[in-house]
Amino acid sequence: MKIYTRTGDDGTTGLFGGGRVPKSHPRIAAYGTVDELNSWLGLVRAHLLPEETELDALLQRLQGMLFDTGADLATPLDSRARTVRIEPRHVEALEQEIDRLEAQLPPLKTFILPGGAPAAAMLHVARTVCRRAERHVVKAMQQETLNPEVLRFLNRLSDLLFVLARWLNHRRHVAETPWLPEKRT
């Protein structure tokens, strides 16, 4: 099988289950941004320390869930194509992970600036990409019916990525930088 098909040379792409849409379609922007997020998680994984196997395994699971999310977004709800759909259990799994990790962190008393250890800083970037994917899903949902669990999943995933950045900095003993608003004169 060749990597190129030439079918997208006209500016369209195929959806799972049939049908073609312009590559500028909001649905395509949504799952394209999910794909970008997945790549950011791969970059984070490449910057983990050898002893951070637990975090690496979690990020790998999240990457698999993001592939499922992309497949869900690429498959119209009325399609007869068989695909994985994001379900409430996926959102609940993220919530459980957030609760587990937050229990290991000092309470957050102020806004913090993104940064810290390189992998943690990348997790902050991944969080912002996740928020952009969420906005694209909202836009696509204004035009057609999508699985509403995808929106909940991305919302919760961005929260998890924030907690993971804090957790990684905490684990590596890197202090968080509080946001100090400029004083007005």
Question: Keywords, please?
Answer:
185 residues, Hypothetical Protein Ta1238, Chain: A, two-stranded antiparallel sheet, 5 helices
Tell me about this structure.
Residues 3-168 form the Cobalamin adenosyltransferase-like domain. Pfam families: Cob_adeno_trans. Its EC number is 2.5.1.17. It comes from Rhodothermus marinus (strain ATCC 43812 / DSM 4252 / R-10). The chain has helices spanning 26-46, 53-74, 88-102, 118-141, 148-171; strands at 12-14, 20-22, 112-113, 177-178. With 185 residues, it is mainly alpha-helical. The protein has a single domain (24-78, 85-178), classed as Cobalamin adenosyltransferase-like (Hypothetical Protein Ta1238, Chain: A). The protein has a two-stranded antiparallel sheet with strand order 1-2. Helix 4 (118-141) runs antiparallel to helix 5 (148-171). It is elongated, with a radius of gyration of 18 Å. The protein starts with 11 loop residues before the first strand and ends in a 7-residue tail after the last strand. The model has no long low-confidence stretch (mean pLDDT 92).
